[in-house]
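ARCHIVE CARD
CATEGORY: sequence design from structure
SOURCE FIELD: tokenized fold
FIELD CONTENT:
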């Protein structure tokens, strides 16, 4: 198990965004939790939404006096292939899971137990990968165990639910992003709902002017800054539907001849499907010179800070940001783009419908045709893009930034 070391961060840094009173309220909420030992467990420190959320939350909790540690599971690629299968099953794909899978799951987790040499007051298990640890501890279990599910589990495959039921069923609480995701039959002590957030103070979400962003897209990635740019930022994953985005772009191209498409995605450590799906996307794009596919296999930087600034440039400099997911627990990328006042066209699925109010601060779409129609419309109407982008930023400021999320967590911990 790897430890991710993070410096404490002061909630006072957010005063300019949320006001002094809200900062004071969070400090008050945290006061009785000072010294509480909290362990966060997940499967990757790099790539994907959980790795994005945890640094801010862990640093802020540490800044408020909680004793927080973040550990990342170690495992062979066969383990991550299995857990991706579990993830896909939870999102509704028909998957097969056999006894041998359970044996591989538990034997890997058995080699990740060193962190339990001490007592914890709270153990927060993110997604399915570390969930089995709870059963392995038996009589040595301490503290309250919380399963934090980040995926869209509105119609999970029975095999995935059966696989996880003994572990999650024995925890003290399950926390989903939306009520629709609560899995019947898992039956932990309690079920709670908390929406995720983005951190406006990270380099990824810092203000970057459209013109500077477009200069970066031109200089570093070769896009033409004088022509329209449509972007999707996502892992290469079937649920993010990059092939559907290419289909939509091809429709748009008939209407807006000079449009360019950028598909931008890193390869997460715990997502072994990424390389294969990246190759499939490249093949599907064919030889169209106006489709740009960037990943950490090529031009997209692997250096964390540079990478964050590159993503920022794509989200700040594009004319339209697409997120054509067919399943999406929340979709941090949607909130990130909205925060940057982008005009966003996104799948009418999962947590995205909590973020975008259709036709007000972005568009929700259900298929390729609707996606193409809305992207085309927005490319033709700069004033509409601007108006929706301004409202999108306000939507995120009100509901989806870190301090609200932190307060929800503290309230949850205090409720035990
Ligand atoms: N991300 C990134 N580089 C990429 C693709 C994604 O840094 O090439 C980040 C993105 O900015 C967001 C997170 O990874 O913060 C993805 O979270 P989201 O909830 O959108 O999707 P997930 O990958 O968790 O399904």
């Amino acid at each position: 198990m790897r430890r991710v070391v993070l410096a404490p961060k002061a909630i006072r840094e957010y005063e300019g965004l949320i006001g002094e009173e809200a900062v004071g309220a969070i400090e008050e909420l945290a006061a009785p939790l000072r010294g509480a030992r909290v362990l966060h467990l997940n499967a990757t420190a790099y790539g994907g939404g959980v790795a994005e959320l945890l640094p801010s939350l862990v640093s802020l909790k540490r800044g408020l006096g909680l004793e927080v540690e973040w550990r990342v599971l170690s495992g062979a690629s066969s383990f991550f292939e299995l857990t991706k299968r579990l993830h896909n099953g939870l999102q509704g794909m028909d998957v097969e899971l056999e006894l041998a899978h359970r044996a591989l799951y538990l034997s890997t987790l058995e080699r990740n137990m060193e962190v339990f040499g001490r007592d914890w007051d709270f153990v927060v298990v993110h997604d399915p990968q570390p969930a089995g640890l709870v059963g392995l501890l038996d009589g040595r279990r301490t503290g309250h165990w919380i399963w934090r599910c980040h995926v869209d589990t509105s119609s999970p495959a029975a095999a995935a639910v059966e696989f996880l039921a003994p572990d999650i069923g024995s925890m003290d609480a399950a926390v989903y992003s939306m009520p629709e995701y609560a899995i019947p039959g898992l039956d932990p002590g309690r079920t709670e709902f908390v929406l995720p957030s983005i951190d406006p103070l990270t380099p990824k979400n810092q203000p970057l002017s459209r013109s500077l962003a477009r200069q970066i897209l031109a200089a570093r990635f070769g896009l033409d800054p004088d022509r329209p740019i449509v972007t999707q930022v996502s892992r290469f994953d079937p649920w993010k539907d990059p092939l559907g985005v290419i289909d939509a772009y091809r429709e748009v191209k008939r209407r807006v001849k000079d449009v360019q498409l950028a598909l931008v995605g890193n390869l997460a450590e715990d997502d072994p499907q990424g390389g294969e799906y990246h190759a499939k996307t490249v093949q599907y794009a064919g030889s169209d010179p106006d489709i740009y596919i960037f990943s950490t296999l090529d031009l997209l930087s692997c250096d964390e800070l540079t990478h964050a600034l590159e993503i920022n440039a794509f989200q700040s400099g594009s004319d339209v940001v697409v997120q054509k997911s067919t399943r999406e627990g929340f979709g941090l990328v949607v909130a990130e783009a909205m925060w940057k006042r982008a005009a966003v066209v996104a799948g009418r699925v999962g947590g995205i419908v909590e973020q975008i109010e259709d036709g007000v601060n972005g568009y929700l779409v259900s298929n390729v045709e609707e996606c193409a129609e809305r992207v085309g419309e927005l490319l033709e109407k700069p004033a509409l893009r601007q108006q929706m982008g301004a409202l999108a930023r306000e939507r995120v400021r009100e509901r989806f930034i870190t301090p609200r999320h932190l307060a929800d967590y503290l309230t949850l911990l205090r409720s035990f």
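CARD ANNOTATION: The first helix runs from residue 15 to 18. The chain has a mean pLDDT of 96.
SHELF: design records, drawer C
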